[in-house]
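Q: Hi! First time doing this. I have a protein sequence and I read that you can turn it into a structure. Is that right? Here it is:
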Amino acid sequence: MKGPLFYAKILLFGEYGIIKDSKGLAIPYNSYQGALKKSKKFTTKTKESNKNLLRFYTYLASLDTDLVHFNLDEFKKDIEQGMYFDSSIPQGYGVGSSGALVASIYDKYAFEKITVLENLTRDKLLKLKGVFSLMESFFHGKSSGLDPLNSYLSIPILINSKDNLEATGIPSQKEGKGAVFLLDSEIVGETEPMVSIFMNKMKNEGFRKMIDEDFAKCTDACIDDFLHGNMKSLFGNVKNLSKIVLDNFKPMIPQRFHTIWQKGIESNDYYLKLCGSGGGGYILGFTKDFNKTKTILKDYRLELVYRF
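A: Yes, that's right. Below is the predicted 3D structure, encoded as structure tokens:
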């Protein structure tokens, strides 16, 4: 048995903002993927994954909901026969490792599942998001459901608000100098503590005002520019966003990256922003000249996401 591949995802824009109902843009990231497999011989990694699937099975079996029903007998039988999730997606890196797992379980075991081949109306997207939110809460305590949705559909998704999602197209890549890239912090991040810090900060009126007025508006402008291919305007807005994040989200940025974050803003060679909840994992970067940025940041591991 080998299940279909489900890819990683990158939330290009909208981290934290989507918690407060502003816009977001998520895209699939095909460099990493995962699939359900079976094996009679366990390694340490596959054994741990198999145990994790059993815990997930127990969680799904305990759900009291009419939103979704699973073929739990088959799921349990497959686990007993050595099923595991074979994944290259790094965990704790903000690229949706649990999302791909959730998508693969829904795909294989959900009754009356919504498929990618259907006409994906807003209602269907919202229903899927609700199902995935319920499922992924097992991993994060609270989940928006967006990571599994992106992984399952493998298409860019524009989040206009909590109740308004749409599949979208992004400009095709060009062989230009510019790029969106990932910078590896080499630190595993945890979502829950970062979200707790954010929710505590939201109790402060000044912080709330900054989110509503500066952060959300800047994020919306970045999304608009990116979708319409307005690269000149995009870089101005991404620079502003990079400054806002550095000034207001310092706990989410690992200490040793504060200096290179600031250097990017001052030199205009590149701009950094959070990828997911922060605290480690990947940092997202934007540059007009990827080769130059690779030289400047030669001490760090960079991965290309998108060229323009």
